């Protein structure tokens, strides 16, 4: 057996550079790069190794460890999980800064390889700088925080251990069902230790997506259930896009007269003007999609994990005889809430399901209802996104302005606060992957870093990041990274002077406004943040606009810009779209001195009677 003597860190770098993928007949590096913020726990080992392969595996420097991991995660999502990135940090705060991002990837089933440095395996210099010491367990380090938010976790204490660890990591990162974050904690002394590695370990390997076909018995049961349906309805989740199944979904819906509601992750599976597309479903759903979901007797859930925002906290599907067909690569998701599982890749699963349903269509009256409900919703949405307003604009009106000045290939990126709900309802996606929302973990601070990752995945598309002032203040440093790397973003910053979304929820549950909007916080002086000046200080072009007309002009200029532009606009924190939507289970206090809370509790208890859990 031929061997080559390398340090463990050099072996990691060389192995990652050898992994490939094939997309549309083109062989590409599976890992598009390594994000790195160096410290004493990785600069001497991984840092030296990455320098040696910089022509094959580029290294990118960020300004925040969580931010760079968000960028890597967004890159993978925008690449349909066909390509990915890795992230390396030192031990201590550098590592734990990535834990939140790991949770984002875990919830959203997205691949990212995390390589935090770790303590000395030999323990001779313990405790080293930044080392966490457990009084009860000598094997614990800060990196153990990654265990619950990683699909696979391993601590590499000897150089040869990296061989099975990387092989296991690649299996998970590329598996459509098990996909998620992998953490390999690299002890800093082991990174620098040499070993005679088999040369075969570094042979080029091409990873192709596994297309899981449905079991014959599961397929037959699903077909029988659907054929007997009078009011069938499709819920499209992120698995549709990861599978590249959007054209198959459109053809399936058209052939069988079905309508489709989209989750946050599944939005843009169909173009907004596709006859089958009723838009968003659930708590932030359109009136059209939710009207059909309430009556549906068979729900065909394709590539969705059926979280509470999709199901209206399991109170949306009101038909007492409704059944769910769970078409999903992951059995865990396919069997939720007593669903009839159809464990399969979304693309081949829909193809085989359609072939088995040959000649069958949903009742014409049901298809007509879907068309009528869609027309009603479009008219309602237009009223909310219209530009006319004498006061501060709403989020929906800002969305309308962005929509009117956008191109079909543009990508809108968002993550948390009130914007996801308004975008889910109103944004009219025209091409696949044109809507990029991190709403599985709803992580504030994802927006700008995520936009950077989306732009890196496809530089040909204009990327528009929509972010509130609260999220911007939490994490904005990757704006500077976008300028540094030459990846232009257009950032629309909506300043409602606080956490407007949660303030509205607070009031809706009977409480007084408290500690959300800046004016309701404990303060001596209210901050007056000059967001445009701040963005300019980070290297971006920046402007503050007054009103929708100025916003549209600024958006048109931003399209012609060569570097990132931030457009700031003041918005009303109290206005949101009251059309569409659905109840969401947010527990209201059972007793309170406030009459408003007691009233809200009675409404809450009444709403709970509509929940159907486990049937």
UniProtKB/TrEMBL annotation:
Annotated ranges, domain Thiamine pyrophosphate enzyme TPP-binding: 417-569
Any GO MF annotation of the entry: 3D-(3,5/4)-trihydroxycyclohexane-1,2-dione hydrolase activity
E.C. designation(s): 3.7.1.22
Family matches, as Pfam families: TPP_enzyme_C (PF02775), TPP_enzyme_M (PF00205), TPP_enzyme_N (PF02776)
Keywords of this entry: Hydrolase, Thiamine pyrophosphate
Signal peptide region: none
Annotated InterPro entries: DHS-like_NAD/FAD-binding_dom, Myo_inos_IolD, THDP-binding, Thiamin_PyroP_enz_cen_dom, Thiamin_PyroP_enz_TPP-bd_dom, TPP-bd_CS, TPP_enz, TPP_enzyme_TPP-bd
Location of the Thiamine pyrophosphate enzyme central domain: 219-353
SUPFAM superfamilies recorded: DHS-like NAD/FAD-binding domain (SSF52467), Thiamin diphosphate-binding fold (THDP-binding) (SSF52518)
Start and end residues of each Thiamine pyrophosphate enzyme N-terminal TPP-binding domain: 53-130
UniProt similarity note: Belongs to the TPP enzyme family.
Name this polypeptide is given: 3D-(3,5/4)-trihydroxycyclohexane-1,2-dione acylhydrolase (Decyclizing)
Organism, scientific name: Microvirga terricola
Lineage: Bacteria, Pseudomonadati, Pseudomonadota, Alphaproteobacteria, Hyphomicrobiales
């Amino acid at each position: 057996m031929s061997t080559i003597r390398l340090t463990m860190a050099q072996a990691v770098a060389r192995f990652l550079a050898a992994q490939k993928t094939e997309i549309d007949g083109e062989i590409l590096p599976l890992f598009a790069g390594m994000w790195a913020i160096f410290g004493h726990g990785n600069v001497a080992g991984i840092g030296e190794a990455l320098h040696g392969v910089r022509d094959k595996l580029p290294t990118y420097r960020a300004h925040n460890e969580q931010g760079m991991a968000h960028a890597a995660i967004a890159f993978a999502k925008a690449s349909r999980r066909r390509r990915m990135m890795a992230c390396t940090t030192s031990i201590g705060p550098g590592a734990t800064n990535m834990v939140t991002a790991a949770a984002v990837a875990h919830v959203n089933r997205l691949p990212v390889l995390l390589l935090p440095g770790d303590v000395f395996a030999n323990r001779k210099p313990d405790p080293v700088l930044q080392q966490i010491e457990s009084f009860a367990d000598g094997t614990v380090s800060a990196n153990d925080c990654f265990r619950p938010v990683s699909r696979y976790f391993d601590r590499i204490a000897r150089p040869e251990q990296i061989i099975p660890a990387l092989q296991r990591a690649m299996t998970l990162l590329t598996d459509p069902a098990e996909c998620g974050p992998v953490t390999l904690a690299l002890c800093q002394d082991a990174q620098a230790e040499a070993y005679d590695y088999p040369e075969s370990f570094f042979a080029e390997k091409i990873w192709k997506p596994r297309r899981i076909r449905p079991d014959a018995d599961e397929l037959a049961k699903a077909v029988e259930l659907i054929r007997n349906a009078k009011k069938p309805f499709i819920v499209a989740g992120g698995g549709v896009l990861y599978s590249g199944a959007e054209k198959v979904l459109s053809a399936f819906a058209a052939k069988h007269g079905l309508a489709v509601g989209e989750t946050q992750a599944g939005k843009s599976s169909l173009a907004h003007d596709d006859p089958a597309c009723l838009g968003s479903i659930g708590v932030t759903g359109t009136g059209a999609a939710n009207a059909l979901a309430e009556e549906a007797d068979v729900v065909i859930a394709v590539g969705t994990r059926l979280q509470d925002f999709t199901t209206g906290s399991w109170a949306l599907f009101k038909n007492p005889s409704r059944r769910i067909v769970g078409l999903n690569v992951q059995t865990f998701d396919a069997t939720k809430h007593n669903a009839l599982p159809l464990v399969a890749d979304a693309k081949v699963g829909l193809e085989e399901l359609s072939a088995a349903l040959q000649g069958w269509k949903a009742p014409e009256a049901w298809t007509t209802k879907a068309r009528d409900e869609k027309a009603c919703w479009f008219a309602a949405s237009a009223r909310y996104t219209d530009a006319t307003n004498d006061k501060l604009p709403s989020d929906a009106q800002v969305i309308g302005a962005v929509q009117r000045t956008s191109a079909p290939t543009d990508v809108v990126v968002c993550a948390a606060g009130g914007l996801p709900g308004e975008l889910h309802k109103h944004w009219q996606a025209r091409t696949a992957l044109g809507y990029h929302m991190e709403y599985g973990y709803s992580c504030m601070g994802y927006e700008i870093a995520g936009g950077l990752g989306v732009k890196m995945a496809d530089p040909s598309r204009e990327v528009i990041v929509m972010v509130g002032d609260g999220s911007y203040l939490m994490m904005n440093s990757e704006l500077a990274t976008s300028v540094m790397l030459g990846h232009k973003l257009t950032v629309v910053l909506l300043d409602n002077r606080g956490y407007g979304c949660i303030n509205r929820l607070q009031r809706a549950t009977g409480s007084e406004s408290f500690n959300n909007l800046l004016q309701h916080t404990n303060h001596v002086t209210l901050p007056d943040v000059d967001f445009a000046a701040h963005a300019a200080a980070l290297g971006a072009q920046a402007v503050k606009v007054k009103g929708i007309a100025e916003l549209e002009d600024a958006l048109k200029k931003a399209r012609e810009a060569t570097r990132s532009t931030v457009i700031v606009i003041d918005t009303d924190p109290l206005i949101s779209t009251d059309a569409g939507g659905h109840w969401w289970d947010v527990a209201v206090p059972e007793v309170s001195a406030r009459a408003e809370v007691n009233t809200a509790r009675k409404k809450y208890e009444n709403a709970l009677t509509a929940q159907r859990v486990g049937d």
